[in-house]
Amino acid sequence: MIHTLRIIHLDDNYYITSLIQVLLTEEGFVCDIERVETETDFIALLKRGEFDLVLSELTLSGMSGMTALAMSRQRYPDLPFIFVTDTMGEEVAIESLKSGATDYVLKCRLGRLGPAVKLALLEAEEGEKHRENQLHHARKLEAVGRPTCGMNHDYVKKGVKR
User: Pairing relation of β-strands 4-10 and 30-36?
Assistant: First the structure.
């Protein structure tokens, strides 16, 4: 069964969304892209959840892409977030990555989008597996640690005569 990639695309240009759909399909993705233009609509989709990726323009008329990144990180810290923009200089790109963006792709280089999405999804999957392994390991330690501590405590109480 093929997994449909669910994407929030925050951009005020319908044609870019259509182009992204075509490019990702050519890369082998099956996509369901929901384009939003406003902060209100973006927040509504975030609240609904069930998305695999956020693609966002940096500069929008009603909202900043950096604000969208912060909102996304607050609600879903591990959700891949890629800026797809034509207005990002080197300093802003560095700041966006420091703020938690997974990557950025310039609109004049959209050929990079497919590989960037693949890498972002792979990193998110590996991060999830790592967190699951850590949780599993912590649970094992907790399960092993409780009886051991209890047995040691009981042994000390029974073994010491005063």
Answer: parallel
